[in-house]
């Protein structure tokens, strides 16, 4: 991940939840906000509702890979947090990818969208 840094600090997550734009779908909620940097910062939230650690880590790995493979389509300069929902545990990879791209397009994160 050359162009993306991880969000790790609690206050950064809270700032995004409070002041960022959001879009939701059955598998995830995505929050974003411009960060005045030349690169994206990315964070993931997987709550204990999803299951035990093995399940949560699998969902996190899948979402991270979806972001990585589509990173060239996403505009730089945003803080992005992806909150996994329970349905993400049972969804296929292709469905998660489709939902993520649709949600990113709603937020105007994709390079081809007109915002």
TrEMBL record:
InterPro entries: Ribosomal_Su5_D2-typ_SF, Ribsml_uS5_D2-typ_fold_subgr, RNase_P, RNase_P_CS. Keywords: Endonuclease, Hydrolase, Nuclease, RNA-binding, tRNA processing. It catalyses: Endonucleolytic cleavage of RNA, removing 5'-extranucleotides from tRNA precursor. It is an enzyme of class 3 (hydrolase). PROSITE patterns: RIBONUCLEASE_P. Its EC number is 3.1.26.5. One of its GO terms (molecular function) is ribonuclease P activity. RNaseP catalyzes the removal of the 5'-leader sequence from pre-tRNA to produce the mature 5'-terminus. It can also cleave other RNA substrates such as 4.5S RNA. The protein component plays an auxiliary but essential role in vivo by binding to the 5'-leader sequence and broadening the substrate specificity of the ribozyme. Belongs to the RnpA family. Consists of a catalytic RNA component (M1 or rnpB) and a protein subunit. This is Ribonuclease P protein component. It comes from Pseudoflavonifractor intestinihominis.
């Amino acid at each position: 991940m050359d162009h993306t840094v991880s969000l790790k600090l609690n206050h950064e997550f809270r700032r995004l939840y409070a002041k960022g734009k959001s879009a939701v779908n059955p598998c995830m909620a995505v929050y974003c906000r411009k960060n005045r940097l030349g690169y994206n910062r990315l964070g993931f939230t997987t709550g204990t509702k999803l299951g035990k650690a093995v399940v949560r880590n699998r969902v996190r790995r899948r979402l991270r890979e979806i972001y990585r493979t589509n990173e060239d389509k996403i505009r730089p300069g945003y803080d992005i947090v992806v909150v996994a929902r329970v349905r993400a545990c049972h969804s296929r990879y292709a469905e998660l990818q489709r939902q993520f791209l649709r949600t990113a397009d709603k937020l105007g994160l994709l390079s081809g969208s007109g915002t």
